[in-house]
Amino acid sequence: MKQISRRDFLKLGGLSLLTSGALSFEGQFEKYKEQPIIYQGSSHFKRVALTVDDCYLVTMLQKLEEILDRHPEAKVTLFPVGKALLNNQQKDPGIWNRFYNNGHEIGYHSYDHTNPQVVSPENLVADFDQWLNALREVLDEEPTVRFARPPFGNASPSFLHMCKARGVVPTLWSTGWGGETENVVKYTVPKIKNGDIVLLHTRKSEIEATAQALPILAELGIQPVTISRIYLDWLKEQNETAGCYADPFSLSRTCIE
Ligand SMILES: [Zn+2]
Question: Is the CB of residue 254 less than 8 Å from the CB of residue 248?
Fold first, then answer.
């Protein structure tokens, strides 16, 4: 995937405000006054996002790493809590760097998994900063963080405030691979749709399901990509209107109605 700078990324988000369809300017303003929450990407592209929440168990992260080593085309997004960042770095120094340097993405999921519903907007911004500092501590380089997933999927007003204040996109999911591995592989995985955002945790059954799902996805011609890629596909879809085309990777070909 071509690297996109943070500036381009933000610029692109801004462009979608201007080119998002046939609504009047006021209509578009209304539409985007509240930050959109992303649940899934575009159905036009054969891509999905596998996202792993919490990331408490280092052994399961290591297992995931092994699986991904066998599928270099597949990228995932990790949403670890801050405490797991620090704990797992102690247990396996460099583990986060290895994921990050291999092109996987890392997003915010709170410092200690407190429900955002019971945290004030100000304290949630402070929580993001504490989490980001933990991430900085475990990575060799300044991380790029674009997405935030609320604990318990609770995109509360305080959570959305934090996202706005820190310029990250609130991210939920459209499907999950929880449950018995055998059933997930047999019934859930084959039903995957373009643009799906799959929720996973570092549970043995779900990591095992992922191991078995990757060859199935390859067979279907569906590529697991980062949330950034899924989001850019989604923005691209928003930007595409009749007689008007926007390529997320070349910002010159956009149009404004
Ligand atoms: Zn969680």
Answer: no
